[in-house]
Amino acid sequence: MWRNWKRLYAESVHIRITSYFLLILLPLVAMNLYAQNKSQLILKEQAMERTKGVMQSAMQFIDTTLLNVEELSNLVVTDSTLNRHLDAADGELEPNDILNFQAAATELIHFRTMNRTLSQTMILHTPSSLLLSDSGYSRLNDMQNEDWVRETVRSNGSPWYYIPAENQFTSLGNKDLIHNTEVITLMRLMTQSEHLREPSIFMASIRKEYLYGLIGRLADPGQGTIYLFTPDGRLAVGTPGSNPPSDWEVKGGDFGTIREGEQSLMMVKVASPSSGWSLLMLQPQNALFEKSSQLRDQTYVITAISLAIAVIVAWFLYRGISFPLRKLIRGMKEIRLGRLDVRIEHKRADEFGYMMDTFNEMMDQQRFMIRDIYDKELRIIQTELKLLQSQINPHFLYNTLDSIYSSAILVGADQIGEMVLNLSKFFRISIGRGKEVFTTEETVVHLGYYINVQQLRFKGRLQVDIRVDNAVRSCMLLKLILQPLVENAIVHGLEQKSGKGQLNIEAYPEQERLHIRITDNGSGIAPERLLFIQNELGAIGSTDMKTLRHDVKELFGLRNVKTRLILYYGDQAELHIDSVEQQGTVVLVTIPLASCADPIGGK
């Protein structure tokens, strides 16, 4: 059966054309489905971003509310009049103490009127176990066994929020004031007097209904839920009748997705950087993707119709024998455009296969007749040249990224933006394709972006002086011909030197040649190493281009610069290095001025 099918496929144009159409349509269908899924992800991200923005606004209102309450508590605990009334009373109450407590209750009423968000203000007078509020006072029993009392003492004057649980057991006589599950209460120690062993406790209650009013409208009614958490992860308020999932922490960011039963929930979390309180919203994804799901179903129907149409069209194309002829026509058009390397690939065994084989043989003969030795040699040199140039960019990229990393550690983040800006300007030219030569002035401007990045990294220890003679500003230089030399001066010279470093770059004409001198006062090069470098660079000439080794890692950047100079400007272009150890290094590039006007022609 396989042999029969293979023979039928080789001999039947109809089957082949139908298969080709299916091969064309199936990737389009796959791309369409991929686009549908991608659009859902984009829709989800946009919805999360919008939700996050609204939640951040609500978080600001909550921060303002909590800040006002904490500022009010600070006024209360430091109020001298109120503390004087409380200090006057001790464990055994006298008639005068009752009057002082009444005065203190009056003060509480005054403070509560200053903040309308508070539902109750209270003070626990620890020596007498009396709870004073703006509505009166009562004695608390077994006060020392209350968790909130111990926690307030441990806070040592810092405010914290008490959130009573629904089934909280209490021995207080007035349970509704403190353990009311409809409020959250800020608790804070009063200023301690010298004759009191234990300070009193100030309490200010905020109704959960008020806090939920600030966030409740953010969630879709009947579908979404929203929760407010304290800095230590305790639930303060949430959508009535619902509980947050146990794994509500968003891993790796502000967005996430969890499953609750058979339903997928979109989870968005916003945390306040100032107060530490956080909001968590859960929204069902089904409602978000309802319309896109309808569009996906319509896509399935359109795909099925398209497949049926493809089969019908393939039949008509088969009847017209158009597919093999189109291949031949396409090949002829390529020839007319001058592309002599065109070749028709096929595995046909019929007459059209014979025609395409004849076409390929004809093109092989044409290529053999047109291409000569000069054309081949030129292509080889251009290919090697592009390879050498492409090897420079990654080398610089890694060094520069190391510089950005070092700078991020040594300085604040406000300098990283400037480094990245200069780096992006540098790569816009160095990695961009098309233009391979620039004027000397453009080259210096481009080089300045790299130098700016290095100066930020050196934090004021690198001084740079660039001087370009007006007579050579319009001379054409290869892209990235100077950058590796400046990089070597900084990384291998100035970076190894303690104290300030000086880098000088000069471009001037002399004896019909363009001279570019790069000087640094870095650590220099040892005599043995300098001799090795000079010998290696001196061995590179135009006759070595075909035997040039690309796997040599020693002197990688200098070899590339010297090779590119010779390929573009000829043997008269030179790269010379001189150095004195612990004093500095001088790199001199000389190029014939005639070659600078037209580098390729100059060669």
UniProtKB/TrEMBL annotation:
SMART domains: HAMP, HATPase_c
Protein name from the UniProt record: HAMP domain-containing protein
Top-level lineage group: Bacteria
Localization terms from the record: Cell membrane
Annotated source species: Paenibacillus phytorum
Membrane topology (UniProt): Multi-pass membrane protein
Taxonomic placement: Bacteria, Bacillati, Bacillota, Bacilli, Bacillales
PANTHER family for this protein: SENSOR HISTIDINE KINASE YPDA, SENSOR PROTEIN KINASE HPTS
InterPro entries linked to this entry: Bact_2-comp_sensor_kinase (IPR050640), HAMP_dom (IPR003660), HATPase_C_sf (IPR036890), HATPase_dom (IPR003594), Sig_transdc_His_kin_internal (IPR010559)
